Amino acid sequence: MRVVGIEGTAWCASAAVFDTERDRVRIESDAYEPESGGIHPREAAEHMREAIPAVIETALEDAEGPIDAVAFARGPGIGPCLRIVGSAARALAQGLDVPLVGVNHMVAHLEIGRHRSGFESPVCLNASGANAHVLGYHNGRYRVLGETMDTGVGNALDKFTRHVGWSHPGGPKVEDHAKRGEYVPFPYVVKGMDFSFSGIMSAAKDAYDDGTPVEDVCRGLEETVFGMLTEVAERALSLTGRDELVLGGGVGQNARLRGMLAAMCEQRGAGFYAPEPRFLRDNAGMIAVLGAKMYRAGDTLDVAESAIDPDYRPDEVAVTWRDDAEDVLLGGSGGDLRGAEAIVEADETRVTKTRRPKGYRHDALDARLRRERTTGEARLLSEARRVGVPTPVLSDVDVPESTLRMERVGDTDLRDALNEARIAAVAEHLAAIHDAGFVHGDPTTRNARVTRSVTRDERAGAEATHGQRASRDGRAERVHLIDFGLGYYTDDVEDYAMDLRVFEGSIRGTASDPEPLVAAAEAAYREAGDPDVVARLREVEERGRYR
Ligand SMILES: C[C@@H](O)[C@H](NC(=O)OP(=O)(O)OC[C@H]1O[C@@H](n2cnc3c(N)ncnc32)[C@H](O)[C@@H]1O)C(=O)O
Ligand SMILES: [Fe+2]
């Protein structure tokens, strides 16, 4: 079978022919390079108009035999560019009298790594221009496990280089300069599975304006931004219990990012795969490869329904070409000792939690994060208990060793004992700590522990105390919060909303029927806390991210 792919979402006009029998991909690309500054949408569209017909013609030249289908990138991307690609694809499919396949560009960035690696169901990190997110396939969709709260990672780097006066693409220039730079620290922002670049980028611009050598700024940026992506990828592996990671997207061409991910995976015994650069940056090869899988699954488009979609999200795609056996999230074991943040050793009554050095991180950044998180966790565990939220009692804090010793709480992770009452208890706990002026930072269903039964004495005081409720068999039970290492003090409603969002995200990621549980969480939060927080969460969700 032979499938044509056409790509032109932003800067790269590209056509490819994928020959499935030989697993051979012929790619022909023509990049738009602005004279100065970033991508100008009108110029980019102009480039597509000229370059797309030419790359299609060249790619088809040495196709050895008939074409079976034409696949094109429907979105996300720049509207005027997408329209030109869409028209070209329709015309070609009609001319060849073959079916049309509409491909999501983001999913293509993920699938190419899976295709080339042979991994069955990896966790996927996409580090591209307009995006940065970690996804896993679950129950017919790609689920977003974590993502940027503001710009894509490539765009973030490009904004900095524009400030310095370098033209698009800035990423390769950052990589080049970083090789000669010394690490300088920048804000490091990971919130649960999500992360943000805006604070880092303004700090980088300020540092440059204040005379920090640009090489050092570039190095600091790489260490910080890629350290965050690697940390989130590791969290996703831990949360899902998977041991395979693939990388996609143009920023994946960066050797330091690939090196960090490889080191992280090696440290935890996971497999790592990054496709070769021609498949990482925008290219029609990945469109053709996914197009062939979709075509084989009968997932084709009527011309009348083939409109482009500039905001096409990867989790909107109904995945037709994978089967349920490949689910990432169900049945993940995520063993205790492989926790992403720390090594946890437990006996009957005590837990010792140690934040070991992460080999992938720059030493100075690693030392800072371990120190900040150890002391922060110790403080917030006590603060939370003070406002009535059950947490483990600490017996020892060893900052140089980044070790906490504490009481062991609960019989089981909430993840393995989900019900509405327990979910509601966590939501009430979150409302209580937010009211006290701090967030948990990572309130997932694995960071809540359920005690199924409590003693008679404890029960006596239970009704009045926060966090205890009757379980189905009538006994009081208690839901503890643990792992406050990413918590911090804040009075910003948006931070509280993000905490709730992380919690809801982890419910969606682990429950087979999540919506009633999510509804229970929100109802309980509205009741116990500030309803504005829930309203803000809706706003956060509605903000588009492909900008
Ligand atoms: C929607 C679509 O058009 C968009 N594609 C895109 O932005 O092109 P992509 O090829 O995936 O990524 C380009 C980005 O990748 C960065 N980049 C390229 N080489 C790099 C390098 N060596 N180090 C860091 N960044 C690099 C560029 O600066 C640019 O921001 C996307 O996938 O988000
Ligand atoms: Fe891309």
UniProtKB/TrEMBL annotation:
Q: How does it assemble?
A: Component of the KEOPS complex that consists of Kae1, Bud32, Cgi121 and Pcc1; the whole complex dimerizes.
Q: Where is this region: Kae1?
A: 1-321
What PANTHER family has UniProt attached to this entry? TRNA N6-ADENOSINE THREONYLCARBAMOYLTRANSFERASE
Where is Fe cation annotated to bind?
H105, H109, D282
Chief subcellular site?
Answer: cytoplasm
Q: Which HAMAP family match?
A: Kae1 (MF_01446), Kae1_Bud32_arch (MF_01447)
Q: How is the cofactor bound?
A: Binds 1 Fe(2+) ion per subunit.
Subcellular location per the Swiss-Prot or TrEMBL entry: Cytoplasm
Protein name in UniProt = Probable bifunctional tRNA threonylcarbamoyladenosine biosynthesis protein
Annotated GO biological process: tRNA threonylcarbamoyladenosine modification
InterPro entries in the cross-refs: ATPase_NBD (IPR043129), Bud32 (IPR022495), Gcp-like_dom (IPR000905), KAE1/TsaD (IPR017861), Kae1_archaea_euk (IPR034680), Kinase-like_dom_sf (IPR011009), Peptidase_M22_CS (IPR017860), tRNA_threonyl_synthase/kinase (IPR009220)
What is the reaction catalyzed?
Answer: L-seryl-[protein] + ATP = O-phospho-L-seryl-[protein] + ADP + H(+); L-threonylcarbamoyladenylate + adenosine(37) in tRNA = N(6)-L-threonylcarbamoyladenosine(37) in tRNA + AMP + H(+); L-threonyl-[protein] + ATP = O-phospho-L-threonyl-[protein] + ADP + H(+)
State its role.
Required for the formation of a threonylcarbamoyl group on adenosine at position 37 (t(6)A37) in tRNAs that read codons beginning with adenine. Is a component of the KEOPS complex that is probably involved in the transfer of the threonylcarbamoyl moiety of threonylcarbamoyl-AMP (TC-AMP) to the N6 group of A37. The Kae1 domain likely plays a direct catalytic role in this reaction. The Bud32 domain probably displays kinase activity that regulates Kae1 function.
Question: What residues make up the catalytic site?
Answer: D442 (proton acceptor)
Sequence segments annotated as region (Disordered): 455-474
Q: Which organism is it from?
A: Halarchaeum nitratireducens
State the UniProt keywords alphabetically.
Acyltransferase, ATP-binding, Cytoplasm, Iron, Kinase, Metal-binding, Multifunctional enzyme, Nucleotide-binding, Serine/threonine-protein kinase, Transferase, tRNA processing
